[in-house]
Structures are given as structure tokens and as C-alpha cells.
Amino acid sequence: EAEPWCYDKPSCGPKTWASLGYCNGKKQSPINIITEKAVPDARLGPIHFVGYEDRLKPHLLKNTGHTSEVEMKPGATISGLGLPGTYNLKSFHFHWGTLNHRGSEHAINGLHYAMELHIVHVKSNLTLEEAKKDPEGIAVLAFFIKKSKNASAINAWKTLGDFMEAIPEKGDSVPLNGKFSLGGLLNVADVSTYYRYRGSLTTPGCNEAVIWTVFPEPIEMNQKTMKKFTNSLYVSTKRENRLLQKNYRPLQPLRNRKVFLFKE
Ligand code: B30
Ligand code: ZN
Questions:
Q1: What pTM was estimated for this model as a whole?
Q2: 54 CA distance to ligand 1 centroid (A)?
Q3: Nearest to 201 by CA among 252, 257, 258
């Protein structure tokens, strides 16, 4: 079966995506955020998380062949943030490089971080398929993750990292066992400042349906934990020996879009 898209081969990598869905559109993601050019907008307002403290017991962590993703059972929502309504939490996943090579999708003033967490939400009352056709159907929260020697080696991130070793092959999944919550992953994050712009999914079909919220203050992750994210997963089978690494899309032009800034 031919691979429709990938990150690591010229035959299916990001340069070939233009023919897939909306990937050659004019409002694509990710982007480089130039902080000097961001427009302060006090109407955006702080974020309200509901249900993020629920432990991840019923949820499956999966190797999709493109990322490690947790599909969430319904229940948690976000509002505030200047969003046009309430958005339901659907899933979260990661982008990374190698242990020593940057892997974030977005950049701040040209600077990339080691990894990026995307928390995907869909406008209430829409299915994901419907949301992809709505210019404000999907809200993604993006957090940068930085490798740090000082970061705690024992926290929710370690627990999640340890599970990465259980999903080496595409299609593998493992139930999370209630030892941590998404809120537990985020309690080390600073959500008081963020950047906002309109863009796309960063994977094919690259639908221009996303309200992006990018938090510039990185989450610090212990490097032993980070290695479990960057060196445990394969694109297909272990036998095929393609490590799932550098699963980020290159930067896309901002064109005539504005980036807004909210600071508490
Ligand atoms: S991203 O945050 O722009 N990187 C999707 C969601 C967010 C981004 C990219 C893609 C998405 O919804 N893709 C649809 C396919 N997914 C379903 C899903 O819920 O999330 C299945 C899959 O990988 O195989 Cu991911
Ligand atoms: Zn993503």
C-alpha cells in the first residue's frame, strides 16, 4: 500500500503535500511568530479549562504512524480565550525531532523548541468532519516543550513517557491507567500569555479550520523523559526500522495574516 504522506521520504514528505487537500492554501500552519509584530488584544481573555483534571483512565495512547496521540472520551471543554463559544476536547498529540534536534512546528522569533504538544478541540455540536469545513471549527492549543536537566524526573510527564515504550509500531495502543490527567501535564505550564492566529491543520488535508493558540513559555521536560518520546516509536513496524522522528511540518508563510497577543 503506497503511503499517502510522510515526513521522512522525498516521495511522500511535506514538499509533496501540495496536491493533498488544502495543503497549498494561503492560511497554512505552522508559522514563525515574530513577537514584535504581534498585536495586543485585551478582548482575547484568559482560558477556562473544564474537566482537564479527570484522570486519563479510559483513554488510549496510540501510535498513528505520524505521532503519538491520546484520543479523549467526551467531557472536557475549553472556553474563554476569545473563542466563539465552547470547544470540546478531542485528543492530544506531539511533534518532535530527535533527542538533539529541534522538533517543534511553530517558532518564536525564528527559535524552535525540542517538542510541541497539540491539544485538539472541536466546536461544540460539530463532528470533526464538519469542523474541518468551518473556518473556526477547530481550536488547537500549542505548548512548546524544552529539554532540561533540571526538570523533575518524576511527574506526569515521566508517567506518559514510560507509556511511549509500549507503542513501538503503527497501530499499537495502550490504555492509560489513571495515574495522571491532562491537567496534571499542564500544571507546570504558564498559560498567562499566548499568541493567536487563524491557520490550518499541520498534516494533510491541511484544512484551514483552526484557531491557533500558541503559549510561548515552554514546558520543561527532563531529558531522560524526552528520550522516551523521541526514540521509542516507529513509522510502521520495528522490522522496517524507520524511527518516527522529525514529525514536524516546515514553517509556512504568514502572508496577510495578523498574529494577536494576550497577556494577563
Ligand atoms: S494539528 O494539531 O494541526 N497537528 C488533526 C488534528 C490536529 C492536527 C492535525 C490533524 C486531525 O484531526 N486529523 C484527523 C485524523 N486523525 C484523527 C484525530 O482525531 O487526530 C486520525 C489520525 O491521526 O490518524 Cu490524528
Ligand atoms: Zn499537531
A1: 0.97
A2: 22
A3: 252
